[in-house]
Amino acid sequence: GSSVTVANGIAVSGNSSIVLQATNTTAQVNGTWQGAGVTLQAGSVQVDAGSSINADAQGYVSDAGPGATSGEGGSYGGAGGGGYATSLYGAAAMPVDLGSGGSRAQYVGSNGGGAIRLIVSGTLTNNGTISANGEQVEPSRGAGGSGGSVYVTTGTLSGVGTFTANGGANTTPSLSGSPAGGGGRVAIYYVSAANFTGFASSTATGGVFTGTATGNGGANGSAAFFDTSAPNSNVTVYQGYDFPANSSTQFNSLTVGNGASVTVGGGAQIAVTQALTISGTITAQSINNQGQIN
Fold first, then answer.
1. What is the model's pTM?
2. β-strands 3-12, 38-47: how paired?
3. Residues 6 or more apart from 179 whose CB is under 8 A from it?
4. Closest CA to 24 of 66, 54, 78
5. Which residues pair with 245 in a beta bridge?
6. How far apart are CA 132 and CA 232, in angstroms?
7. Distance, CA of 145 to CA of 163 (rounded, Å)
8. Model confidence over 35-86: pLDDT tens digits?
């Protein structure tokens, strides 16, 4: 829930971490989910190899959040495992929500990922990790938490590191009844990218499930990079992205990378003024397909 402004630079080195906690993670406030992460503003940010800025497991707790469903992995940008996860929430373009906690009947589920809002007026050099990952399935046997939010705006982006909001995995075969969490949301905006190599390795992957039960792995969330040097941005989707129903969006160019998946809600309109490049999949949904509107 905090906002921290640093006039000059933030440097994270020597295998160190800045951990960004969240507020309102256990219950609704005045009837709505109002969990909030942390905003960091700085002239420059440098994260060295082995170091991190993270909100891992800092989101909604067990059975809490808009994407918490009894007996299922937490959902956010992607559905949690288990087969009956609730609907997704939040905005892929400007993600600020916390990830939801996992659940499993009488067992305590794992926490979702928190929310990072990073605003850098100069250069962001990421050679380490900037993450809001969900908590993995614990021996408590509860389901995994969903990934949270990583929302970055910077002038120059450089480095070899990654941005992740992955769902909590289940890597323990003996916990075969504990579903993994769904992926969160990653959105990175930059004016220039100076030799940054972490595009494709920045993910909002659904948690891996190790076991024999089918449907217990988490689904991928959204992960995209926005080159704002052109009007309306050049956007590349490296994993997943969803356009809400009845929305209207314009891009200079849109690239759907190999293996990436874009879902366009019914009634949505997307205008691409220059180039549309599809190596992955675009799925167009429909609306008003079960009756008439007079």
1. 0.94
2. parallel
3. 71, 72, 73, 80, 81, 82, 102, 104, 143, 144, 170, 209, 215, 216, 217, 218
4. 66
5. none
6. 27
7. 18
8. 999 999 999 999 999 999 999 999 999 999 999 988 889 999 999 998 776 7
